[in-house]
Structure formats: C-alpha cells, structure tokens
Amino acid sequence: MTQNEDNALHATVAMRGYRYKHGDRPLDGYTIQRAAGRGGFGEVYYAISDSGREVALKVVQAYEQIELRGIGHCINMKSPYLVSVFDVKTGNDGQPIVIMEYVSGPSLRELLDEAPSGLGAQKAAFFLREIGKGLTYLHDCGIVHRDLKPANIFYENGYVKIGDYGLSKAISASHLSGQTITVGTVHYMAPEVGAGRYDQSIDIYALGVLLFEMLTGQPPFYGASAAEVLMKHLGTAVDVSAVPEPFGGVIRKALAKDPAERYQTVQEMVEAVYGAEHVRQSVSCFSPESLTLVAGRVADRAGIRASGGARTFVRPPSSRAYDLAADERDLSAMQRRSAGWADRIGARVARAINRLAGVGDSVATIIGAGGRSATDGGPVYENDPIPQQQRLLLVLVTAVVTAVGGAIFASGAEPLVHGFMIFLATAGATLGVTWAAASLLPGLRAESRLLRHLAVGGVASVAAILFLAPFWLAFRYVHHHPGETIAALCLAMFIIDWHKRTRSDRPDRVSLGDLINCGIVGLVSGLIFDAEVPLVVAILCGTSIASQIMSTWIPGLAAVTSPPPPPEPAMPPSVGRD
C-alpha cells in the first residue's frame, strides 16, 4: 500500500462515525458502553460482558492479516506486565473482534503530558525497570513488539503494562527483512526499520527513546514532518548533554545507529542503569503510591461521560489507552514544541494552572476530606433538595461570616471597613461565578480547561471589582494596597476551577477540599503581589462556599455516574503474578 493510499484510508476512517454506539452488541455476550479510540487498524470500544466483566473490544477493519498475526503471537501470553489478549472472534457483522483486558489507568503518554519537563530520574528508572520486565517477557517468547511508545505503556494499580500487540511479530531469520509495510511510530522508530529489518534491537532502540523522553519531556528527534524525523534517526547522533549519568551513556548506546552496537538484551540495558548505586537507592525509596496519585488526577481529568442518551454512566478507558493512530498527534505535539516562544509560554501557563488548581484536592485527599473530582456534566434526575430562597439565605450568612472572619485577621485599624469590603467582593464574585457557570460553561464543554478558567474567572473578577470599587474609593485611605490586592484576587480567580465547584453532579454540595484549595491559591497569589493576604483568602473562600451553595446540586448523582465496583477475581490476586 502506498503512502497516498494509506493517507486516504485514514481520511476516510476519520470522516465517518463510529460503527457501534452505546447498547449495541456486535459480539454475542458483550454490550458496548462507549467508543474508546480509532486508528489505522480499526476501532476500539469499552464494553461489558453479560457476566459484568469490563473488556476492550477492538473491531479490526484494516490490515487484518498484520493485526491478527500479531494478536495470534501474543494471545496465550500471561504476564502482569502485558495487557492481556483474551480471544479473537468474528462479530455479528463478520468483522474480526479482539477481546482485550480493560485498562483503567492512564498511559505513559498522559503522565508525560502532565510533566512537560520529564518525570525525573527516579520515576524514569522505575518505568525503565518495569517496562523492561514486560519487554523481556516478549523477547523471551520470541516476540518483537515493533511499536513501543508512551501511548502503548499503561500504569494501573502499581503495575506498568505494555499493550497494543497489533504490530507484534515473531522473531525468526525469515522475518528480519523483506517487510511490505513499514510499521511503528516515527519518533520511536529505529533506523533499520525503514529498510524492513525487524528484531528485538528495534525495541531496545525505542526503549532508549522512551528513557530520553521520560527524563527530558520530549523525544530526542523531532521536526516539522515525519520525513525530517526519520532523517534525524538515520544520521543525527543523540544529544545527551542535558541528561545525567548513567542515563546519558545508556541512551547513547541504546540509540546507536548500528544495531550491533546497542545492548543485545533489555536486561543488559536495565542493569546498566541500575549499576549506579545512587539510582538503586533512589528507586528503592520510590513508592508507586505517589505515582498512583498522579494517575488518579489524570483519570479524574479525563472525566466520566455518558454514552448517547442512556441513563447508565460508565468510566471510559484512559483517553490514550487504546490509541491506535497516535502517530499524527505525536507529530503535532512535536511541532508545537518547535513553535514560537509565545505558544510555548501559553502552554506552560495552562499546565501551571492545571497543577495549581489540583493542590487543594491533593491536600484534601491526604487528610481524607473532599477533593473528589466530579463528572463533566450529566442529566438531572431530580430537583435540588434546598429551595432557592433558602440557598440565598445561606449565601448571605456565608458572606457575613466570611467578612467577619477576614476582618479579624486583616491589618489596619478599621476592621468594620475591611468586613464590608470582603462582604461586597464575595457577593459580586459569587454572582459572577454563578452566572458564568449557568450561562457560559455549557457552551464551553468542548473547549480547553484554560478557556473555561479564563471565562469564569474573568466574569467573577469583573463582578467583584464592580461591587467593591465604589466602597473602596470611598474608604481608599484605609487600605494601602488596592492595586496589589485586586491583582492577587484576579490571578486567583483565573486559577481556581469554578467549573468543578458548580456542576450539579459534584460529590458534595460544599467540599472541604475546595475550601483548602482556595486558601492555598489565595495565600500564594497574595504573597506574589504583596497584597492584603487575609482579604484575598477570605474573599476566595467565601466565594467558593457561596457559589457551591448557590449552584444546583443533585445528591447521589455523582454516585450514579461513578463506575460500578470491579467484579471479584476468580483467583486470589497473588496467582499469576511474578
């Protein structure tokens, strides 16, 4: 198949909708819950069997011989470090359907997206070792993966799993050359792949690229086109000047242009890294639980979405868990990295907002209160149990209590004036947040999180300033930092995730985790601008509580949208684990 034909196939697949929808049964015994991904080989769906087992169904629609041959090599493999392939059957429409393990955790791609500067030496060494276990198992079984990349590496419950065997191939003398289709992802593709040569050394090369990306946040070679990236793989030596040892030397050897100069086994490569005592000590102190917190935040950010108009809600697989056509998006990501400085700064600001917005949730998780992420909208099954008049009264009480508390801690000799300032600003910001959440956010669900932050935060800031300005002008002699306090308040309004606080299916009407979040953000922004910190913190905390009280809340809806507990395992967890 030529490149033009391949591009045409991808364009055709991208134009049409998914073949199956929620509730369809393309295979007897399995019910589709939602589409999970599409690529050159077909479509993947999250499904549930009649007995309640969560699975991923891959409906093969192209390159069937390549896909099924790869699946056939791996179907009987049993390892906790591999995404299990259960069976291959013919669907009711005559299409081959691969039944795979459902992976609820995030991919390494998503974890890297959360850490644009890299995961750090400790996590990189941990992932290298765990990926090496699965890759060694494949190689010992005579299988070369051929498409090792972050989107095919998953983290779940302390285990790192390798998935997507569509390109896997048995290693033999007859399979080292003469391939008719060049496969793999361009940023992780060994130089000899272009000549149709495949053996385990290409997986070692890809593992070296993964290690470089985990340490630096980006692959060693990228460019404006796939051809440019391939040319760099062929003729450009990897620059490891910014990579600490022993990682630099290991990457240099793993990415040697000549396969004979690379490590001959994955184990040899892993041992080269762990030969350094400081690496062994660092990883020995590493707790996968810290990675689980990050993974949970990624999964929360992916959201829980309904399929069609059904009243049943399910958790989707990781957004990149079965990404069969990530090549183009990976290339686009590399192009964005090479974009202008303004674009890079904008992306970093967005990531900083995402991280700062999650600080309070993390603290709340540690102390065991609040901080749970809700779903991205959903149908309302019943009315809010508190009438609107009572909500207004509670908001008024909240604003008064917040004003009194903030005035006590504020500097200056006029606590009454400070109290009125806090009350007015809280009332204005609450009005702005409530109006923006009801009028603007429904139309911005498909937009980026940064845009939603700017929309609600901007309206809330303007409303707070409008309510506060007349009073502030009348008593300007009382407060000596009006500009700094306004700047700190606006920055905090933009950072805080008001969308999560006002959605009707949030777990609790008022969350302690959200209150902690506002306090931390207000403290940081106030210190940055040398503002009146007690005023900023009081206004933010009061607005958080008042906006949650004022926003519609459907008790129990979050529980309805949460996934059902996984079925009990047929065997003890220890069975089959290394």
How would you characterize this protein structure?
The strands form three sheets. The protein has a five-stranded antiparallel sheet. Strands 6-9 form a two-stranded antiparallel sheet. It is built from 21 helices and nine strands. With 578 residues, the chain is an alpha+beta fold.
Tell me the layout of helices and strands.
Layout: H1 3-15, E1 30-39, E2 42-49, E3 54-60, H2 64-74, E4 85-90, E5 96-101, H3 108-114, H4 121-140, E6 143-144, E7 153-156, E8 159-162, E9 169-170, H5 200-216, H6 226-235, H7 247-254, H8 266-274, H9 277-284, H10 288-302, H11 327-337, H12 341-357, H13 359-367, H14 388-409, H15 415-439, H16 449-474, H17 482-495, H18 498-502, H19 512-528, H20 533-550, H21 557-561
Antiparallel strand pairs: 1-2, 2-3, 3-5, 4-5, 6-9, 7-8
Helix pairs in contact: 4-5, 4-8, 5-7, 13-19, 14-15, 14-20, 15-16, 15-20, 16-17, 17-19, 17-20, 19-20
